[in-house]
Design goal:
single chain, 398 residues, alpha+beta, binds dinuclear copper ion
Length: 398
């Protein structure tokens, strides 16, 4: 239920004043308390100023008032009373900061690792080896430990209804310093966004937490680990070829396609199961995927996804190939499916893991110059993680 104190703010789609977890409850509690105290102070100050202006206003013929110098009582009061109030606020803030983000136990492993990239989120489940992007699935009923890391620049993970925001610092993978706890009370979808300016498409770096019952969460994880099937249509075959010849796999991973393991861009294995494309720019649908593939820069200016000027056949094929619901399978190319553990999901990711940013050599695969590419879609950022200058932005700028 939205908090009634700030109806305008609380009525927005996602609000820190509509907490859905114990951690967010603490944050909104301290916000509302300090806001209320400050509102009372503001009202008192405004009242007294108004009263004094009216009561002691100058009238024609008044003599000059006598100046008042030095009133120790008054000076001590207006120095120490505000000091006490802001000290109290600082203590409250520090208490919530500490209690909403308990320390990790020695040797504890995270349930989820979220890695910020320009401009999307890489998501790992170290226990199962499942990898996805932009949507964090978590079970309800227990606190989920989330490790926060960054691959290029500073990002900030913020899902207002679920707790405090937290920076993601490149190169700093210390779990005890860089973690949050997600503990949604109810199965639901909670939206958030990157809260640290991180370049061109910072505003299009949305994140979504999907809270599920433990059973639904387990089913979701198993689905992501299903063995993969061969393409079922001619169009999907064309799409698979287009995926390879257009160097898609230099940036994107696709489980079952051996040379497609890069993580410069999101893992595309279960693209059709996500609810948005481009970390929030478009609702996910086959039609929108085709639009996105045809001109990514139109929807997400400055993003590292080049406009490949695909032919109509390639565009249709790629859409067919990539946009599937889980269980529809993806083609294998002579490789075994990901190793499975008894639970039916891929085997564990080693921990601690280091986020890998853009590869030093962005073209490790035998990618022939794509024949369908017109112009020069620049390769993804190679040695420099900083955003390319506008003139070198892939696909041109608008
Ligand atoms: Cu990532 Cu702003």
């Amino acid at each position: 239920m939205p908090a009634p104190w700030f109806p305008l703010l609380a009525s927005s789609v996602t609000s820190p004043l509509d907490p859905a977890s114990p951690q967010a409850g603490q944050v909104s509690g301290v916000f509302i308390l300090t806001g209320a105290v400050m509102t009372v102070i503001l009202a008192l100050v405004c009242f007294w100023i108004g009263y004094i202006l009216l009561r002691f206003r100058g009238r024609p013929g008044d003599a000059d008032p006598t100046p008042v110098y030095g009133n120790k009582k008054l000076e001590y009061t207006w120095t120490f009373l505000p000091l006490a109030i802001v000290t109290w606020f600082a203590i409250l803030g520090a208490q919530v900061t500490i209690s909403a983000r308990p320390k990790t136990a020695a040797g504890q492993r995270p349930d989820v690792v979220v890695i910020g990239h320009q401009w999307w989120w890489e998501i790992h489940y170290p226990a199962s080896g499942v990898v996805t992007a932009n949507e964090v699935h978590v079970p309800v009923g227990r606190p989920i430990l989330v490790s926060l890391q960054a691959a290029d620049v500073i990002h900030d993970f913020w899902v207002p209804q679920l707790g405090p925001k937290h920076d993601m610092i490149p190169g700093d993978v210390n779990l005890d310093l860089n973690h949050i706890w997600l503990e949604p009370r109810e199965p639901a979808v909670y939206d958030g966004a990157c809260a640290e300016f991180c370049g061109n498409s910072h505003a299009w770096m949305r994140i979504r937490v999907v809270a599920q019952t433990q059973a639904d969460f387990d089913a979701w994880q198993r689905t992501l680990g299903q063995p993969l099937a061969a393409p079922s249509t001619a169009a999907a075959e064309v799409g698979m070829k287009a995926f390879e010849t257009n160097t898609c796999r230099n940036c994107h991973a696709l489980a079952g396609l051996p040379a497609a393991t890069a993580n410069v861009g999101p893992d595309l294995t279960n693209l059709g199961d996500r609810s948005t494309l481009g970390a929030g720019v478009l609702p996910n649908s086959k039609e929108n995927l085709a639009k996105w593939l045809a001109d990514p820069q139109r929807y997400k200016p400055g993003c590292y996804m080049p406009d490949f000027h695909l032919s109509a056949a390639d565009l249709q094929g790629l859409t067919e190939y990539l946009w599937r619901k889980s269980g529809e399978g993806l083609p294998l190319q002579g490789a075994a499916p990901p190793p499975m553990v008894p639970g039916g999901v891929p085997s564990a990711t080693p921990w601690p893991m280091q986020p890998s940013g853009p590869p030093s050599d962005p073209s490790p695969t035998p990618a022939a110059p794509p024949s369908s590419v017109v112009g020069s879609p620049a390769a993804p950022p190679s040695t420099s993680p900083a955003p390319a200058p506008p003139s070198a932005a892939p696909g041109g700028s608008r």
